[in-house]
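Sequence in, structure out. First:
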Amino acid sequence: MQRKISIILNSNASSNQKFFLGMRLAIIQIKIGLFHLLRNFELRPSSKTPVPLEYAPDAMLTEIKGGCHIKLVPRQTDQC
């Protein structure tokens, strides 16, 4: 009985380590993607974005009424 429990605990520990490593790699990929997106584009409010912003009172989390629409505008790079 004791051996069976230790095998189950050890198998879970190894799978948790793989899961942890996978999550870390996924977070790094997301950060790299955001870096490249922000390096190459400017974020500007779209014409659909309400000004001033109004928050949805019935939302569980803070949410802008009508959504937050963002335009991606390519950055102007000066080549030397």
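Second:
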Amino acid sequence: MLALAIIMQFVIVDSFYLSALRALIFTHVIEMNLLIVLSTSTAYIFSLISFTSQMIEHLLLTEEFFKISTLLVTLIMLEQ
């Protein structure tokens, strides 16, 4: 699941990162692409922190790793 999440986050969501940053820097407008980037990045980073803490045996109370960010990207891409 980690490999799929990495591919989704850095290959597919890459276009969203670019358009969100361009819109924010040049037009100072918060648009849907920025919300997509924030939500998928937050879910991915939380999954990385949870996965890392589980690997060093400081357990958090989470069982679902990397599924939310991958699900968000998949649903967004299907909608477009």
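Remark: The chain has one domain: 2-79.
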